[in-house]
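Q: Convert this sequence to structure tokens.
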Amino acid sequence: MDCSQIQFSYDKDLIDLEQLQKLFNRTAFWAQDRNLEDLAIAIANSDPVVTVWDKERLLGFARATSDCVYRATIWDVVIEPEYRGAKLGRKLVETVLSHPRVNGVERVYLMTTHQQSFYERIGFQFNQSTTMVLYNSDPPTPMLIPQQMREGENTLNV
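A:
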């Protein structure tokens, strides 16, 4: 495999959402059928976003969210299957970890179903702490708040 043309980028404007959607559909059971609009929103609200390219072909993607002090989380790490084994996945994660919004935080989290050994080789440790999830797929239960926050206001009167 020729990796001489491989480039990594932080430039969100280069991302072809259709290529990204296809990459997720080919490589990530957990990201099947994500729509283009939602992908655009996720990318806009993530920093850093790192992509891997072979000329104009998207080979890899990862993104993170961070408060820049205490916590960061890495999301959606994918590499085109035919390029796995060339250490591009490792370089992709290391590029996210080296970004200023991530590299100084106390803890960096990620979730993985089957790739624990891959992330352990990069330095992540298994964590037995309690993890909780709130699934917002059902309509939310109305909260008992006497006066709702009006758009543009920064406070909530209760």
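The longest strand covers residues 57-66.
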